[in-house]
Please model this.
Amino acid sequence: MKTQAFRLLFALFVFQTMLYAQSEGMVFIEGSRYLPLYGRDSTVVEVKDFEIDIYPVTNTEYLDFVVKYPKWQKSQVVSLFADESYLTNWKNDLELKTSEKNDSPVTYVSWFAAKAYCKCQGKRLPTVDEWEYVAMADEKTKDARIKSTYNQQILDWYEAPRTNTSVVGKTQKNYWGVYDLHGLVWEWTLDFNSILISGESRKDVDKDSNLFCGSAAINATDLMNYAAFMRYAIRGSLKAKYSMKNLGFRCVKDIEIQP
Amino acid sequence: MKLKSIKNRVMALLIAALPIFLVSSCVNNQQAKTYEDTVDIPVSREMIAELTSPPNVPTPVGKRTAKKLIINMEILEEEGEMTDGVKYVYWTFGGSVPGSFIRTRVGDEIEFTLANHPDNKLPHNIDLHAVTGPGGGAESSFVAPGHEKTFSFKTLNPGLYVYHCATAPVGMHIANGMYGLILVEPKGGLPRVDKEYYIMQGDFYTKGKNGDRGLQPFDMQKAVDENADYVVFNGSVGALTGDNAITAKVGETVRLFVGNGGPNLVSSFHVIGEIFDKVHVEGGDLTNENVQTTLIPAGGAAIVEFRVDVPGTFILVDHSIFRAFNKGALGMLKVEGEENKKVYSGEMREGIYNPEGPGIQTLPTTDEIVEAEIPAKSLEEQLEFGKQKYMQTCFACHQAEGQGIPNAFPPLAKSDYLNANVDRAIGTVLHGLTGEITVNGEKYNSVMTRQMLSSEEIANVLTYVYNSWGNSKKVVTKDMVEKVKKSK
Model:
């Protein structure tokens, strides 16, 4: 059974490589249907095949971007698209503060900036569904959400303040070959605010929104995946122009089927 | 009678209201008026609120008029110490657990700014039970790290109220220490007292068991099961004991603002050796008198007042008593001043009462005493771990400086009995000791139960004792303890 699946997967990979060229620095994610945290009863969502950046975007990469597109430089950025803390850890338009590292994920970027970055690379930001789909894998399995070790590792990071000084690629590579989805920084998603968390987490229980974020999360599909609640909470607290110390991003790309 | 008084009041109001229209241009009209509805209380001028960390409270409002009160509160996620050797990451309002005490009066208009420190990982908000409005402010104050939110409200009802974070998962935010108290004083303020303190109970859930060393993460399953490892006052085990004890002098009236943050447990608040002269039940207008223990619900509060008549140390507990002596819900009020033998005589005589012959008191035992996970690697570590264990196990009787308690518990400091025989000391900790002994020329006749400590822990704690307070500086090893254990 297992070998069969493996063979199928292998065939799939061979087949796929014939269809499209894998982009540099990205890995292929095979789409599927899955039950996200906020699913009610059997509301399964579908994720199509896509490619995702192996690492979050780093300071170096972002520097290249602002060199090329000066309107996203610290002094040039339109205040509508980024609040005052945009790139606050940079010394000036083209230099990091000495305390920062080139290989650290870029943070203090707004959603607008992240979106523009991805667009300029011919990519886009991942949707919440896509991000959560890739992020529910641990090293060995696609869906590790039922494992207590999976949840605990994530929570340990959520609970520990001040960890964003590390560089990318130091956490465990997950099933898909992606690093740092957990344990480095939060990441922007394309539709971060599509799940309505009103800020009053308990009221959302009887609100006709997707996320039933009751105090005890009674309606959530997975009681113990409360780590995910914290991700939805942080997304709910954001506005597109916010930039934050612990918030970076990575890009994804749709699979273009070549004729 | 009642009807008449209402009529009178309406009349009085009308009469009072008339001149307002006439002299409303008069700026300094400070004459006290009564308002049927607290919504109508006008505010004058702005004032920045004084915030205090526990156990202190801000200055009483006294006779001041209602004001526009500016409150700036910062949320900090930071590592702290739950008890000796046990670390915990607390989420705090204002850097303390419980959060800063807010003191207002009825009619104040409060402009509340909640700032979430950029180093924090999570969004937070605040639900103040003193707010009349949806979510108690939670929705308007939901704030991402590195940002701040401002909202305003008017205090309509006097009383003592809890505030807390209400961001998903709500229970977890509260369990990590995100709660505090806001006091809304009535017009003219609460009656003056000599001492006021701020105490708040909370239950904590850690991955490791009570006492397990190191940084302990939050345990969601234990929290759901309501199986607390620590139940403490003011955020940690020693927050109100030893040097941190609250104090008063004989004859003074003490007022305690006592809250319970939960998240799960209700508190049976009691002060050993005192009777509350007055309790504002549940923090509201209803007062009860002569109360021994008052129940404080999770997410609730009470104001208790009592006059201290005799000196001594009074122990504050949650009278669900295992929480007090085994999980940390214990505080101290130290009262200094003249004895009053009429109120309390102290011990008058003592004798031996032995109806069934002398028997050694033992605790129910399991032979599985788990070894400490991390053995001490050096003398320094042995002393450090030993001290932690001493503070957890021996401190209550033998006291912080090993001085003991006269006539009750023998001293360990410069103790001839202790220094004369190491094996006897080890045996005492292992098996307990009952009967008369002479220490430094004083006779003691008391009971020490056998201690549930591992050989490693006994070695550490005895090494600490021998290397403190002028003792013989002996080093006790695990092997020495094992030897005594076997020779029994």
Remarks:
- The interface with chain A takes residues 77-79, 89, 118-123, 125, 134-135, 138-147, 166-172, 176, 217-218, 220-221, 224 of chain B (CB under 8 Å).
- Residues 2-23 of chain B form the longest helix (22 residues).
